[in-house]
Design goal:
The protein is mainly alpha-helical. The longest helix has 49 residues, at 13-61. A hairpin with a 6-residue loop joins strand 2 and strand 3 (96-98). Helix content is 46%, strand content 10%.
Length: 116
């Protein structure tokens, strides 16, 4: 929240700077905390990847291979009556957006218009 316009009249300069320093210190502490959390999550992800690699190697040693990943079918287009500046909802992901787009900006589902 910004300080009121008269704040500098009621508070000596050294106190104003201390307040701003407190805010900066709090923000730095929050940033450090988030950085530590990201580092922890990255370590956990690496551990999980190593675990999966070990399991895959164990399965391969016994002749078991993972099933093939099915190829994703090209998305069917969502059909709308006509282009509009009104808001529409993507039928696949539910994202709300203008009705004059060629595809959804979230899931890339193509939009088709009957009037075209």
């Amino acid at each position: 929240m910004p300080l009121p316009w008269y704040y500098h009249l009621l508070t000596p300069d050294w106190m104003q700077h201390r307040d701003l320093a407190d805010v900066l210190e709090r923000q730095q502490s929050d940033a450090n905390s988030l950085e530590r959390r990201v580092e922890l999550l990255e370590r956990q992800l690496q551990d999980q990847q190593r675990h999966i690699q070990g399991l895959e190697a164990l399965l391969a040693a016994h002749g078991i291979t993972p099933p093939p990943v099915p190829e994703e079918e090209p998305p069917q287009a969502a059909v709308f009556p006509a282009r509009t500046r009104e808001t529409i909802t993507c039928p696949r992901c539910g994202a709300r957006q203008r009705g004059d787009r060629d595809s959804c900006y979230v899931c890339s589902l193509p939009f088709q218009y009957e009037s075209e």
